[in-house]
Amino acid sequence: xxxxxxxxxxxxxxxxxxxKENVEYMFGIPGGQFLQMYDAIYRWGREQGINTxxxxxxxxxxxxxxxxxxxxxxxxxxxGTVGPGAMHLVPGVGxxxxxxxxVIAIVPQVRSAYADSFTLQGNLDxxxxxxxxxxxxxxxxxIEEIPDSVQKCFREATGGRPRPVLLEIFEDAFxxxxxxDKISIISSEAYRAMGKPAVDGExxxxxxxxxxxxxxxxxxxxxxxxxxxxxxxxxxxxxYLQIPVITSIMGIGTISNQSxxxxxxxxxxxxxxxxxxxxxxxxxxxxxxFTLAHGEGPVWNDSQKMIQVDIDxxxxxxxxxxxxxxxxxxxxxxxxxxxxTKKTEKVEKRDLLETLIVGKQRISSTYMKxxxxxxxxIIPQRLIKDVFEFMDDDAILILDGGDIVAxxxxxVHIYKERKPLSHLQSIGMGHLGTSVxxxxxxxxxxxxxxxxxxxxxxxxxxxxxxxETAARLGLxxxxxxxxxxxxxxxxxxxxxxxxxxxxIDVDIPGCNYGTIAQGFGCYGEEVTDPNEIKPAxxxxxxxxxxxxxxVKINYDVPDITKLLISMGSS
Length: 570
Description:
By secondary structure, the protein is α/β, with parallel strands linked by helices.
């Protein structure tokens, strides 16, 4: 008599597939069609290294998956039940889509027998709903399709320009059973390419010739450098030729602020000065969005030559005319051009760079002087300075909000070095409410690192319910700092500057978020004296709990906000 075959269901198959992709966390909320998936994790999945993380809202779960992907450069996985759960995922998935973050969104669908029957949570075309904010959508109806569908989703999410994908699994496939040996699940190395294609030698030589002939070259480092893990190659290349570097906001951390070549971020200050004066620009993995002034004047000029390198051909030449376009992974391009560059003589000094550094230092000194004031109400600059000085050297920083983020970007490189993949901010969508879930996702991904969030009071409230999730998970050295000016600051600034102070729906009643945090099981306190900011942060760090520090600050308009309003980008 032969050995009895082991029978597994669709939930088992899905979890086996995710384990093959080295998934350790799935962020979401349970639903009836997910029972087999959950049961597989309960019966054997946890022992093999995968678990669910229960959130209080699917939007926050998607943000957590996004954060996990940003700090690990691996896809994050989120899920929501059929219908409303899927709809709740949309904002978080959309924010990841806008910033080119690989997220796998998994949703079930009611079983086929109930199609168009007005069953509970049914009759929703979820695939169509997710099409505008996902790179790829796959719907699965039978158990045999699950392995290939998971593989296709991971291939699409990570290949080329990374972005979210949707995997929809009908309840039929979850309930169906099959003999285990009839399902083949292969490793990622067996079905998708791990390396990147080489850049043709002529493009490398043309790029180098343009840069070597330039009087005022400039490198712009974007999110594509971060996603490619190309920060070491970037810094070595820039320093070999002594070319100044600015980063987009998505590119923060792709070059050390200790490098002589680094001038700062693209918004304001020395970065704008360098942009306007450059004659040849090497743009690496950046879209020339509003954070790069759309590639237009007065920040940029029409006479500039530009080499644009991007993994996505649709980005090249899209916002600013190019001299040379190269479809390539930024790490592969930098590796090859660095090799070619080392055949030339190393540049020891560039007068332009020396001049720009002096300007950068002057601007930083101005920010530091203003940020040292002891005024009450506390000025936002002082809050930012004290937080940055307090943070661990390798801490992960989250920025969530409007004006408070503008103040943070002014000083983000002054006090501490931003390490690669340590800056989390929803840029393209400008999505608010990321602070709490980003903190959870980042802390689970990097449990040994300090995670510090700076947010506005309006944005913090959007996903405040998941403070309970942070407390339940027992996350330590996770600190949320709220710059509380009791208003929607950036919108109020717009009404102040552009609409003659005709304020409407921008003032928020005062709230003690520290007390609210305590109710969720976190550490919390309120700060009104600038000299108490750092002591409060120390107490938060030592509390052994997720912590919320509610700092009452004065309402004012940051310089960056004034600039964005003047450019029509607010």
